[in-house]
Amino acid sequence: MRTILGGLSACLAAGPGLAQDAAFDVEAEAQICAGCHGEAGMPVDETTPIIWGQEYFYIYTQLRDYAAARREHEVMTGIAAEYDRDQAKQLAEYYAAKDWPAIQAATEEGDARLANAGITGGQCSACHGKWEGDSRIPRAAGQQPAYLEQTMKDFKNEVRMNAPDKISTMKQLDDATIEALARYLASL
């Protein structure tokens, strides 16, 4: 009995983070995530983003933004609120280490022209470069087109508020350009 009480006292003295970290199983958590984000990296729904192979810091930041309600989603806000900082980092590391899955995305006639006009006008390449992500910048190439479209429209309509510079950029683009840009980026 004395040993059990001594061990319990040591855990309590170490703080709540120790108990949480010992219980966090990133593989088990990833199985929960797979319910929407897919078993092999292909999301179940077209409006759900691919997170396999996404940039580490971007995933981590989005989890923290959901938890702090800087970004809202009916499912992700509650889930992310349950993760402490270390758990969010573990999940971000787990997904960033995965290979990006290939999707089938089609463009429509004129998409490249409209998309390039939007990219030039919004100076998107200044940050996004070749669209494959870079540390804090998310990969957009090969991302779900419906997710990309919704994300850009959410910025434009000030639904998504966790990247103010994107709001002003997306407000410059009409919906037809955003739709073409989403299809174009998905096809890269």
Automatic annotation (TrEMBL):
Residues at which heme c 1 binds: C33, C36, H37, M76
Record-level Gene Ontology MF annotations: electron transfer activity; heme binding; iron ion binding
GO cellular component: periplasmic space
Residue stretches making up the Cytochrome c domain: 10-99, 105-188
Residues bound to heme c 2: C124, C127, H128
Record bears the keyword Transport: yes
Signal peptide: 1-19
Alphabetical list of InterPro entries matching this protein: Cyt_c-like_dom, Cyt_c-like_dom_sf, Cytochrome_c4-like, Cytochrome_c_Oxidase_Subunit
Keywords: Electron transport, Heme, Iron, Metal-binding, Periplasm, Signal, Transport
Keyword Transport belongs to the record: yes
Location of this chain's protein in the cell: Periplasm
Main location: periplasm
PTM text: Binds 2 heme c groups covalently per subunit.
Full protein name: Cytochrome c domain-containing protein
